[in-house]
Design brief:
27% strand, 14 strands, Rossmann fold, 37% helix, 6-stranded mixed sheet, 10 helices, 4-stranded antiparallel sheet
Amino acid sequence: MQLEVRNITKSFGDKEVLHGVSFTVESGRAMGFLGRNGAGKSTTIRCLMDVFKQDSGGFYLDGKPLQVKKYRVGYLPEERGMYSKHHVLDQLVYFARLRGASKEDALRSANYWVDYFELGDFKKKKMETLSKGNQQKIQIAQSFLNEPDILILDEPFSGLDPVNAQVFKNAISQFVAQGKLVIFSSHQMGYVEEVCDDVTLIHEGSIRLTGDLQQIKREMGENKLQLRIEGLEDEDLARALQAQFPALQTQHHEDGLILDTQNQVSQQQILAFVSGQGWTIRSFGLYTPSLNDIFLAKVGEHA
């Protein structure tokens, strides 16, 4: 399946908050939807879910207008909304039946996902008696009910410890391997980088970047090197290198000085200079930006 988001605009009053938003999501490839608070992520998702009606543009599945009600959609909203006074299993069955499952299928699916997330001992407990982390796992479990064709997760890792986060990542990986459509919105770049094949970055209601994450990393890291010298501060290293190679541009980074050669300085020339100074190289190689680096660079261009 292929989901296309085409030229979505949305205004609230006289303020337009989405400005022609377009991107594509492929089945079997998790897509990370990134942006700062207020960038337009949740509004886009709510338009996709038909909670809001966009002003123009549309959503298409395999080239045809998407009718959300005709598909099994799992949705974890950023604002959680389960019932604190009701038993865990009862309300999961209720949500599954709201989505069209028979009583038997609803019970089967609810039991499966409660057990999957290791919450079998809490089936007959009220939500309010569970810890914050376990409540979050129940919220996540409801999004997986009925084995949806499309899975939309908004800030899903909030409140999860590393062990539970790994269980959740495994569940996402299973859905991706089954050829499901997965859209994943989060501020936690490390998780997005682990889980997602593609990313889309939205800033102030406009798409700034979209595509294959590894390809984006290669493109943004092109012609850049990363160097760290034992016992030498990056500022001192930068001054020495720029005195020797005026065309070289440098940028400070937590993992070492980034060198932009501008295709005018080779790795061999830099190595020869460093060796001539008698410095000990701690690390040297091609620079591969992290997703956090990419986010900061692209948002910073427009901030």
